[in-house]
Specification:
This protein has a five-stranded mixed sheet, with helices on both faces. The termini are far apart. Helix 1 (8-19) packs antiparallel against helix 4 and helix 7 packs across helix 8. The relative contact order is 0.10. It is of the alpha/beta class and 323 residues long. It has helices at residues 8-19, 24-31, 35-44, 54-68, 73-76, 78-88, 94-104, 115-127, 213-223, 246-253, 269-278, 293-304, 316-322, and strands at residues 177-184, 191-197, 203-208, 234-237, 256-259. It is elongated and about 80 Å long.
């Protein structure tokens, strides 16, 4: 049997039993409801003076019900609908769209919508044959099992461990601290380098000829040409051999390189997370040799201009270039 909302008679009974000092469990048993239902009723429907008033509670309930019957607000507000559609096509999530609306239209209550309404609208669009659902991120990466602390891939001479990295880097209060990695393409035959700034989450990405240290250095130097020297302070890599040429990179680019502990990807969580976002555009099995630099640059631009909840719905581009 489906759930039925409390009615005015039940609300009157709740008030009466509360006046008799009955506890929530007793009230729930007497009116045949769950204890949690009574608890939520009392917590969400109190008056401005902190009192529970049945008729006021019924009015609050009716107001919420009326609001819930407006799932088609996007169809009725053309301006809002166009905004949401444009942002979805730039791969914004519904939550990011909601947060960004408050920044772009701070004084316009008509330009407001919930993330659930957007999801429902996208589902209706899908059933009608639309393609907006394809712009939503789907699925989650599986976590790797931990394998211990020994690096079985060989050692990089004279590398600095992450334990020597300035503690201030962890606080994300200063611009210029980066994390670097390699994203592998189809059959381990193609690669792109990814570098992410920790505070702004700004992404640099470019294809490398192979997984050698020389190719990694060449790509990294090219990517950092547009980044001011004041925003090149540290770089944290994993233990891949493509980063063995870090000393030459330090001299040419200007940052100080550190290395995470073996099999400790969480120490470079910003980079790992961003690589996952990049996979939305280039799923596993992609042959990067067949992907143009223009398409790679476009994916990076979409991510850098997508608002992030952790940045109070500002974009990585806005944060990097304003700091």
């Amino acid at each position: 049997m489906g759930y039925k909302h409390l009615n005015i008679d039940e609300r009157e009974s709740i008030l009466k039993m509360r006046s008799e000092q009955k506890n929530l469990t007793h009230i729930a048993e007497l009116i045949g409801r769950n204890k949690g239902t009574i608890s939520r009723e009392l917590s969400r429907n109190l008056s401005s003076t902190g009192e529970y008033k049945p008729h006021l509670a019924q009015r609050y309930y009716n107001k919420r019900r009326d609001a819930s019957k407006e799932p088609y607000r996007l169809e009725q507000n053309g301006r809002l609908q166009q905004y949401v559609r444009n942002k979805l096509k730039r791969y914004f999530s519904p939550e990011q769209i909601v947060g960004r609306l408050e920044i772009d239209y701070p004084d316009n209550p008509q330009m407001r919508v919930s993330s659930l309404t957007i999801y429902n609208w996208v589902q209706r669009d899908k059933k009608a044959g639309g393609k907006l659902y394809k712009f939503l991120r789907q699925g989650h990466r599986k976590r790797r099992k931990k394998h211990g602390s020994l690096d079985k891939r060989g050692q990089i001479p004279d590398k600095r461990p992450i334990s020597e990295r300035p503690k201030a880097v962890d606080k994300r209060q200063e611009m210029g601290h980066w994390e670097g990695d390699t994203v592998v393409g189809k059959s381990n035959g193609s690669f792109v380098a990814t570098h992410v700034e920790r505070k702004s989450r700004y992404l640099l990405v470019g294809r490398t000829d192979d997984k050698s240290a020389e190719s990694m250095n060449t790509t990294t130097r090219r990517l950092f040409r547009k980044i001011p020297k004041s925003k090149r302070k540290t770089m944290t890599f994993d233990n891949g051999k493509e980063f063995a040429g870090f000393k030459a990179l330090e001299k040419s680019v200007g940052f100080c390189c550190y290395f995470a502990d073996p099999y400790s990807s969480y120490q470079r969580g910003t980079n790992e997370n961003t690589n996952g976002l990049l996979r939305q555009f280039f799923p596993k099995g992609t042959d990067f040799n067949e992907i143009s630099e223009k398409k790679i640059d476009n994916a990076a631009a979409l991510l850098n201009n997508r608002p992030r909840k952790c940045l109070n719905y500002r974009t990585p581009h806005e944060v990097l270039w304003s700091g």
